[in-house]
């Protein structure tokens, strides 16, 4: 395990933390003021050819939060800058569904407790033969309670390369997170907008009565996040009426749909097929 | 209308409506009239927007303790814009809407010291501790910039620039939206873009969750 440590106090906290969670060779941690950043891999040893998902996790101090890709009315999403072997690539972040947090008349799309960001690493074509696969991420993020603090960390992880992938202790957790970051896709059938409203229709046949429906657009400013979203279902079609923001509706439009029923929250990934 | 929707939903066997605070932020579209307001400056004098009719007015929502806005002030970016455009006849108003006890709240006397520390060069620094004017304008973040045209309509509403950041290293690569809008108006053109998504800390309205400043 390698870490950049701000102080001896942090070292002590880190030692206790690692002892508690059982750190392995396949992760690296940095303790910051209001978060602890971890970079973890699903494998202790990789084959150097197949793509794999790594986890950039923020453990967040109680009472504080970080942001989704669209932060809502205020805030800022984390940014990750990767340094990889030549020819290797890192995907965009696969995000977990956020929570809605009101601030007076405003609404943020946030994570509390922890924020898990998955990134797919693709080795160079032809793979990396023998030796090592070094991963480095320079991460910056904003963490807020009533006030906001920018934090950052550089995390290094070097995975030995062998003839096959050998799962690490994080393998199962990363698989579960991958499932929750890729909710069931649903098409946006129609998206009609004017200066006042954006009206979406989505095919949906719920088995239970819906208590709440909420659309999180990927692009900030398209809707007013705190405005009430009117939802109704008829003949297997969900119609959502959203208050427009000042930013133009992108085409294709994409986002996350949250449906709450007696069983809790269910998420769907909404995308619009561009009209030719 | 609401009753009708609920009735239809019930008829379909499903109800889905989220009751939320009716006082949610609502942004002013470019072209709409800039709502008039009167606020006190740090000297206790009333300043009224409509008294500047016929002039271009730039407004920045400010919070010296927010890391985004502090970057724009401490780097000299916002004071530089204030100096440049007031030199061209623009009226520049800086509005602080943090509620008492919240991050960024200062009394008038303290605010004078903060203004001096950052070299703030606005026409006036205005105190809005109730957040009433922030709500009136749908101001969301610090910074959040508005530009009012000589005809009293909103001509720009949005971010100060194109790169959401707390790091002054982002400034050279950022498109300065608010400055571009002012340049367009000063040369008889129309701002493009006229609306963008503002970025920064949320405005610290009274009664929001979280702990208070000591």
Produce the secondary structure layout.
The complex is a heterodimer of chains A (276) and B (214).
Chain A: H1 8-21, E1 27-31, E2 35-40, E3 43-45, E4 52-60, E5 66-72, E6 79-83, E7 89-90, E8 99-103, E9 106-111, E10 114-122, E11 132-144, E12 148-160, E13 166-167, H2 171-181, E14 184-188, E15 190-193, E16 197-203, E17 212-217, E18 230-234, E19 237-243, E20 254-261, E21 264-272
Parallel strand pairs in A: 14-21
Antiparallel strand pairs in A: 1-2, 2-4, 3-13, 4-10, 5-9, 6-11, 7-10, 8-9, 11-12, 15-16, 16-19, 17-20, 18-19, 20-21
Chain B: H1 2-11, E1 16-17, E2 38-41, E3 46-48, E4 57-62, H2 67-74, H3 77-86, E5 91-96, H4 108-118, E6 124-127, H5 132-137, E7 141-142, E8 144-148, E9 154-158, H6 177-186, E10 201-202
Parallel strand pairs in B: 4-5, 5-6
Antiparallel strand pairs in B: 2-3, 2-6, 4-8, 7-10, 8-9
Distance between the termini of chain B: 47 Å
Q: What's the β-strand tally of chain B?
A: 10
**Low-confidence blocks of residues of chain A:** 1-24
- CATH level 3 topology of one domain in chain B: Glutaredoxin
Shape of chain A: globular
Give the helix proportion of chain A (percent range).
under 10%
CATH architecture of the largest domain in chain A: Sandwich
Number of helices of chain A: 2
CATH homology-level superfamily of one domain in chain B:
Glutaredoxin
CATH superfamily of the largest domain in chain A: Thiol:disulfide interchange protein DsbD, N-terminal domain
- How many strand segments of chain A? 21
Strand line-up of the largest beta sheet of chain B: 3-2-6-5-4-8-9
Going by helix content, strand content and strand pairing, the class of chain B is alpha+beta
Element string of chain B (H = helix, E = strand): HEEEEHHEHEHEEEHE
Shape of chain B: globular
Give the biggest sheet of chain A.
Answer: 5 strands, antiparallel
Overall mean pLDDT score of chain B? 88
In angstroms, what separates the terminal alpha carbons of chain A?
51 Å
Helix content of chain B: 25-40%
Give the amount of beta strand of chain B, in percent: 15-25%
Count of structural domains of chain A: 2
């Amino acid at each position: 395990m390698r870490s950049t440590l701000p102080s001896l106090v942090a070292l002590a906290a880190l030692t206790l933390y690692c002892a508690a969670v059982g750190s392995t060779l396949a992760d690296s941690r940095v303790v910051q003021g209001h978060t602890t950043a971890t970079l973890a891999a699903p494998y202790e040893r990789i084959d150097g050819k197949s793509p794999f998902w790594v986890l950039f996790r923020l453990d967040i101090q109680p009472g504080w939060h970080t942001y989704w890709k669209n932060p809502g009315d205020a805030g800022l999403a984390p940014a990750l800058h990767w340094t990889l072997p030549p020819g290797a690539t890192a995907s965009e972040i696969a995000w977990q569904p956020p929570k809605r947090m009101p601030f007076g008349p405003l609404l943020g799309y946030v994570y509390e407790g922890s924020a898990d960001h998955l990134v797919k690493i693709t080795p160079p074509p032809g793979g990396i033969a023998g030796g090592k696969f070094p991963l480095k991420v320079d991460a910056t993020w904003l963490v807020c309670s009533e006030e906001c603090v920018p934090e950052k960390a550089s995390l290094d992880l070097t995975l030995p390369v062998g003839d096959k992938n050998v799962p690490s202790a994080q393998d199962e957790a990363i698989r579960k997170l991958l499932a929750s970051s890729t909710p069931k896709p649903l098409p946006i059938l129609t998206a009609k907008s004017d200066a006042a409203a954006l009206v979406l229709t989505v095919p949906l046949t719920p088995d239970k009565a819906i208590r709440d429906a909420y659309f999180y657009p990927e692009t900030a400013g398209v809707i007013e996040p705190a405005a009430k979203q009117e939802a109704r279902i008829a003949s297997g079609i969900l119609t959502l009426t959203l208050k427009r923001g000042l930013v133009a509706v992108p085409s294709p439009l994409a986002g996350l749909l949250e449906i709450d029923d007696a069983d809790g929250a269910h998420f769907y990934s909404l995308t619009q097929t561009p009209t030719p | 209308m609401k009753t009708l929707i609920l009735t239809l939903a019930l008829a379909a066997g499903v109800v889905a409506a989220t009751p939320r605070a009716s006082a949610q932020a609502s942004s002013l579209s470019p072209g709409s009239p800039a709502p008039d307001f009167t606020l006190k400056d740090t000297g206790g004098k009333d300043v009224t927007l409509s008294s500047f009719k016929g002039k271009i007015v730039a407004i920045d929502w400010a919070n010296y303790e927010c890391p985004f806005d502090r970057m724009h002030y401490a780097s000299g970016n916002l004071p530089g814009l204030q100096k440049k455009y007031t030199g061209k006849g623009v009226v520049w108003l800086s509005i602080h809407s943090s509620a008492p006890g919240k991050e960024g709240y200062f009394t008038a006397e303290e605010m004078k010291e903060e203004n001096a520390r950052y070299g703030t060069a606005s026409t006036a620094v205005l105190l809005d501790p109730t957040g009433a004017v922030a709500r009136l304008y749908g101001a969301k973040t610090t910074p959040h910039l508005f530009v009012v045209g000589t005809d009293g309509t909103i001509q720009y509403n949005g971010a100060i620039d194109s790169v959401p950041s707390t790091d002054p290293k982002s400034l050279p690569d950022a498109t300065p939206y608010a400055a571009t809008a002012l340049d367009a108006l000063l040369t008889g053109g129309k701002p493009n873009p006229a609306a963008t998504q503002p970025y920064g800390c949320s405005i610290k309205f009274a009664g929001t969750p979280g702990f208070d400043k000591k």
